[in-house]
Amino acid sequence: MDGSVLAQLSSAPIYMICGGIVAFVAVVCVVFMVRAWRAGVAIGMDRTKMKRAVTASASFSVLPSLGILLGVIALSGSLGVPWPWLRLSVIGALHYETQVADAASEAAGLPELSGSAMTAEAFSTIALLMSACIVWGMILSVLFNKKYLHRLQGQGEKKPGEKKGGFGDIAMGAMFIGMVSAYLGSYLGDFASGEGLFTFRGSWTPLAVAAVSALAMAGFTWLSEKKNLRWVDNFSIAASMLLGMLAAVAVGR
Q1: pLDDT tens across 147-177, in order?
Q2: Do 23 and 80 reside in the same domain of the chain?
Q3: What is the reported pLDDT for 222?
Q4: Which residues 6+ apart lie within 8 Å of 15 measured at CB?
Q5: Within a 13 Å sphere around the CA of 244, how many CA atoms are in the beta-carbon half?
Q6: What is the dihedral sign for C-alpha 221, 222, 226, 232?
Q7: In Å, how far are 7, 20, 82 from 13, measured between CA atoms?
Q8: Are residues 94 and 53 located together in one domain of the fold?
Q9: CB 208 within 8 A of CB 247
Q10: What is the pLDDT of residue 1?
Q11: Are residues 122 and 203 in the same domain?
């Protein structure tokens, strides 16, 4: 691939391949939705409540999907539209895809994750890493989900005052904090790259974006947990990203 790599990554054959996979997954979702509806009717559930649940689910799916759309837009400038669309429509997570794509591009020797610098070898590395690192969720689910489900069913509801969370929750939280610290550390290192202690050469835009996004997420978490507004969780990530992007635009001017 040469300078036209972005056009090739958004060509009709790539759209057909990725679109076919997305369409297949969409059909599977519709099949399961119809089967779930029929199962609800068969066990005597109230149709009015079922319709209300469908409407509420559809409504609360719109705002969270904005975050996915932002991820597709952000990655399309360097990886084309079909591949990010496929990744974020089927199995990918927004925070995962962007981080892995950036790390893979650096490992592939690209100066930055951009369409102008993209090569065939670099895209192959990025696509392979994005796929291989997340496939284990499906594999482990096939192998261990049934056993884990029985364990959850045996535990039942937690009693008031009972300690919540196990090693998995702690490990996931620690891993997330480690990733955030690594990114913030790199931003701080770039920012404080001057010769003297208070001589700053780097841009403070990433730090401002991180601060605004963190404050926004903290506000949504407070509303959800302290004010019992659980519906806020449905769009907290998307809204935090939008506010962070607005902060980047404002600071970058």
Answers
A1: 877 776 665 555 555 555 566 678 778 887 8
A2: yes
A3: 95
A4: 81, 82
A5: 18
A6: negative
A7: 11, 10, 10
A8: yes
A9: yes
A10: 43
A11: no
Q: Which residue has the tokens 């806020």?
A: 232
- Tokens for 195, please give them: 């010769």
In this structure, the answer to whether residues 131 and 242 fall within a common structural domain is no
3-state secondary structure (DSSP) of residue 232: helix
Q: Is 9 exposed, middle or buried (0-12, 13-18, 19+ CB in 10 A)?
A: buried
**For residue 112, which amino acid is it?**
E
Kindly state whether residues 115 and 23 are assigned to the same domain: yes
Task: Give the pair of three-digit tokens for residue 216.
Answer: 């926004």
In a domain, 151, yes or no: no
What is the residue type of 53? A
> Measured between alpha carbons, how far is residue 58 from residues 70, 91, 180, 182 in Å?
19, 19, 32, 36
pTM of the model: 0.64
Q: Using DSSP, how many helices (H) and how many strands (E) does the chain show?
A: 10, 0
Give the span between the Cα atoms of 143 and 154, in whole angstroms: 19
- The single-letter code of the amino acid at 249 is V
Show the domain range for 245: 169-252
